[in-house]
Amino acid sequence: MKISGGITVKVSELADKLGLTIFGGASGLQNEIKGGYTSDLLSDVMGHACSNQVWITVQTHKNVIAVASLKELASIILIKGLEPAQEVIEQSDIEKIPLLGTKEEAFEITGKIYNILKG
Amino acid sequence: MHFEYFIEGGNFAEAGSTSSQVKKTLKQLNVDGTVIKRTVVALYEAEVNIVAHAYSGKITVELDEEKIDIKIVDEGPGIPDIKRAMEIGYSTASPEVREMGFGAGMGLSNMKNNSDKLNITSTVGKGTEVEIINYFHL
Ligand SMILES: Nc1ncnc2c1ncn2[C@@H]1O[C@H](COP(=O)(O)OP(=O)(O)OP(=O)(O)O)[C@@H](O)[C@H]1O
Ligand SMILES: [Mg+2]
């Protein structure tokens, strides 16, 4: 969702604040985050996410990077301690999309990010 | 200008690469950002539908001063009821494909929402033809 009147945070700042693992796409860490979208359905994200949002998901395969790149999302956050395969990490480097991770569930991490972006 | 791409059914690793190439080309040509975004969403969904539902396909991109015209032609099972297929949530995707997060039944509605003109024709047992037209200035 878009957060009206919210603040803009860099991906690197968010990763610091929430102790997120950085798997790949580090050259995009200066991307600015303006809202977020939590979904595991690719065409839902394709149709409804907006550029510069952070995407929270359980999907760890290569198509996630393609969707994030086409939609110009700020970053991807994998939940539940899921780890991406090496080829997915390489793709995130190529597309310069920061691929991050947390041990938390979608609900918790989404809530925390919402609170940060709300300002 | 005229570009052609070939899509292999079942090859999920490459799904989206044509959309990504077309996006780069449109950026280089300084096409309006909103038009690029809409076109890329519609094209991606059409590209993934070949990968998920058909055997092989060809994408032709035609550019002139006023519009981008994309034809997506596949060899595949075809769509028996296009009206039903357009409904959000309708999907025949396999369980494996759904596990990857495809098969929400939202692709065709994304195509509709992100194109100025969308034409779909299909012959069961033969294949499907999709045409997406987006104008640079409405
Ligand atoms: N090129 C095609 N060939 C054969 N059937 C198709 C094709 N495109 C769409 N369909 C049929 O129409 C249905 C709906 O398509 P749509 O793109 O809306 O959803 P989906 O592909 O099932 O899921 P999603 O796009 O949300 O990942 C498909 O499940 C399939 O039955
Ligand atoms: Mg689809």
Describe this protein's structure.
The complex is a heterodimer of chains A (119) and B (138). Chain A has 119 residues and is of the alpha/beta class. Chain A has a single domain (9-118), classed as HprK N-terminal domain-like (Udp-n-acetylmuramoylalanyl-d-glutamate--2,6- Diaminopimelate Ligase, Chain: A, domain 1, 3-Layer(aba) Sandwich). Chain A is built from five helices and seven strands; from the N terminus they run βαβββαβαβαβα. In chain A, the strands form two sheets. Chain A has a five-stranded mixed β-sheet with strand order 2-7-6-5-4, with helices on both faces. The mean pLDDT of chain A is 96. Chain B is an alpha+beta fold and 138 residues long. Chain B has a single domain, classed as Heat Shock Protein 90 (2-Layer Sandwich). Chain B has five helices and five strands. Chain B has helices at residues 17-28, 33-53, 82-86, 95-99, 107-113, and strands spanning 2-8, 56-63, 67-75, 117-123, 127-135. Chain B has a five-stranded antiparallel β-sheet, with helices on one face. In chain B, a hairpin with a 3-residue loop joins strand 4 and strand 5 (127-135). The interface between A and B is medium-sized, with 19 and 24 residues. The structure holds adenosine-5'-triphosphate (ATP) and magnesium ion (MG). Adenosine-5'-triphosphate (ATP) is lined by residues 45, 49-50, 52-54, 74, 76-79, 85, 90-93, 102-108, 128 of chain B.
